[in-house]
Amino acid sequence: MIINSRFFNRSELTGFIVLAAVLFVILPLSLDVFRLNLVAKYLTYAFVALGLVLCWGYGGILSLGQGVFFGLGGYCMAMFLKLEASSVENTKIQSTPGIPDFMDWNQITSLPLFWQPFHSLTFTILAIILVPGLFALIIGTAMFKRRVGGTYFAIITQAVAAILTILIVGQQGYTGGINGMTDLRTLKGWDIRPDHAKVILYFVEVVLLFACIGIAQFIRLTKLGRILVAMREQEDRVRFSGYSVANFKIFAFCMAAVFAAIGGAMFALNVGFMSPSFVGIVPSIEMVIYTAVGGRTSIFGAIWGAILVNFAKTSLSESFPQLWLFGLGALFIAVVLAFPNGLSGLWADYVQPRIDRLFARKPKSGWNGNSVADGAPAE
Amino acid sequence: MFGDYSIGDLGSIFVMQGFAGLILFSVYVLMALGLAIIFGQMGVINMAHGEFMILGAYVTWMTSNVFQAYMPSLFGGYFFLAMILAFIASGALGMLVEWVLIRHLYKRPLDTLLATWGLSLMLQQAYRSVFGAREVGVELPQWMLGSLHVTDSIEVPINGVFVMGLTVLITVSVAYVLYLSRWGRQVRAVVQNRIMAGAVGINTEKVDRYTFGLGCGIAGVAGSAFTMIGSTGPTSGQLYIVDTFLVVVFGGAASLLGTIASAFSISQTQSTLEFFMSGSMAKVLTLLAVVGILMLRPQGLFALKVRK
After folding, report:
1. Rounded to 5 degrees, what are φ and ψ at B306?
2. Which of helix, strand or coil describes residue B232?
3. Cβ contacts (< 8 Å) between B111 and chain A: which residues?
4. Which of A172, A321, B40, B231 has a CB 3.0–4.6 Å from the CB of B135, allowing a cystine?
5. Exposed (0-12), middle (13-18) or buried (19+): which is A361, by Cβ within 10 Å?
6. ipTM score
7. CA A226 to chain centre
8. Residue A18 and residue A226 in contact, taking contact as beta carbons nearer than 8 Å
9. For A333, which of B108, B118, B281 is closest by C-beta distance?
10. Which string of DSSP letters, residue by residue, matches A164-198?
11. At a CB cut-off of 8 Å and minimum separation 6, what does A376 contact?
12. Interchain contact B298–A (C-beta under 8 A)
């Protein structure tokens, strides 16, 4: 078992430095607060994409239900913020003061039991991690222990996304319905709406993202990451070698869920609302697309995928609303047909060799070692 | 929840809801049949299946407009021509898509999902640009309006009966084509073992293309039938795609009989529950039950015994 002794190899180090420079220095200096906040919104999807790299790119498990975990994390955060925004003095015009406005509109007169613990920030933060994690554990255990995988798993996760969306929309009194939870104001008394708060939240998010990158990279480098790749390529051989394939799959799926949930929670904080339109099938598939465009086996690629596709989405749908869906659709097809390894694959094939030549070094262990771990069958 | 109704009322409710369920069942079967061929037999996850269905619906709508404008005397029969046109249009588009896109992806089933999702986005936008974002509805011919009185408290709408009859007809012909015709044998041979099928002289590429076209064509007919009970918009297809996939998976992907059985149980559960609770809760409970059963029995209701 060969494990790289260095945490990042040379090309990953370049990727790390470039991403850190762009996110920590270049974007905050060059964008106004509105645009920076948009980038913060894009980055919430980068968390999901990062999870998908582990679960889909490495584990080979395509989940079309990442919106569920994004939504669960986001709703946990939004419930806490909504409760804080619905203090008795803020809501004294309601017939029942002290409960969120949408409950009052739906003739609910007391706070439902499952809302009660969300008065506590500690509980909320734990819930953001644990609720999606446990949910993923249940789904994963039920599916993988019975050796359901591949397309079936994808379709069932998709159904779960559909169920959760219908449930949230249908239970208006408890969840805010189709409008979601809006008008989120303060976090422990600290206003999240003004510009300086948005900048601070942006940096908090970037730091969290890099923490998650660190975790993902750590998983990738350990024996666990190797087993995931082996499982993706030859599941039966791994099973015959005595590994419990199901447990590794469950682990990868849970990690992806937790990353998605962190993204969702940051979404609620940065954007200031949460709604079922980020939970369902369409957003879930879009999240997969970010990963596919960026490169499903590349941590940094997936993050760039999330940023660039969203950036393209915003700018194209602002200027050519008619063309946007054509462009997005064509992009998916092109990525699948022509560049299965996404942007990072293009980079590794065309840009990296030139850089290597430029520095007049032989393209030795640097990115070669990387591509063995990424692409080739682990046999 | 049964307290307020008498036994006779309850009986009528179950019959009426059962009938509403049968109409839903017909739409599910028509949509799922095409998908059972494409997904169950060929293993292609066609996320654009709903859009092929909507294409059939739009073709029907255009045909009805043409008849209304130029041949009002023949309006009563437009639907039969519309159905054939819908089948041809969707089938032809399906074969084109197979040739351009799908045939490169048979070895990567999960990637077909992404590519066809992209295709569905493009088709949706195309419908929006061509037909407008508003939903359109067709005018039904006179003989399809109204309903049959069975008893005092039970009425069944004629268009529902027509859709059901149509479903039976199409199901029987698909079963015939797949299981009894020479071409159907070739399809099943290719599905079971592509290399051997090629070795005994079957043109597998051609079979693939026609199979995909047939699945899409049936989706077009489903869309045509769909216009009789609902209106059509650019994104209507997306609403049904998950349900349809669940129907196919729940039935056991490779089994036509399973598809029909699962469409029946899902639609009946949903429409019966809908009477007693809100539509969204009925749908949630039905889908949850389906997912729950699939977790316990991942191979679906009717599974083929095969060695992997």
Report:
1. -130, 150
2. strand
3. 336, 340
4. B231
5. exposed
6. 0.81
7. 22
8. no
9. B118
10. HHHHHHH-HHHH-GGG-B----EETTEESSSHHHH
11. none
12. yes
Distance between CA A239 and CA B36 in Å, rounded?
Answer: 31
| Stated pTM of the model | 0.85
**A148 has a chain B CB within 8 A of its CB:** yes
Q: Do B121 and A328 touch (CB under 8 A)?
A: yes
A155 touches chain B (CB under 8 A): yes
Q: Are B221 and B86 in contact (CB under 8 A)?
A: yes
Dump pLDDT digits (tens) for B116-154.
988 998 999 899 888 888 888 877 777 777 777 766 666
Q: CA dist A258 to A72, A73, A126, A193, Å?
A: 10, 8, 11, 26
User: What are the beta bridge partners of residue B5?
Assistant: none
Shortest CA gap A334–chain B (Å) = 8
Contact A159 B242 (CB under 8 A): yes
User: Other C-beta atoms within 10 Å of B97: how many?
Assistant: 22
pLDDT, one tens digit per residue, over A169-228 is 888 888 888 888 888 888 888 888 888 888 999 999 999 999 999 999 999 888 888 899
Between positions 150 and 169 of B, the ones with CB within 8 A of A are none
Q: Say whether residue B83 is in contact with chain A using an 8 A CB cutoff.
A: no
Buried b / exposed e over B162-191, threshold 16 CB at 10 Å, is bbbebbeebbeebeeebeeeeebebbbbbb
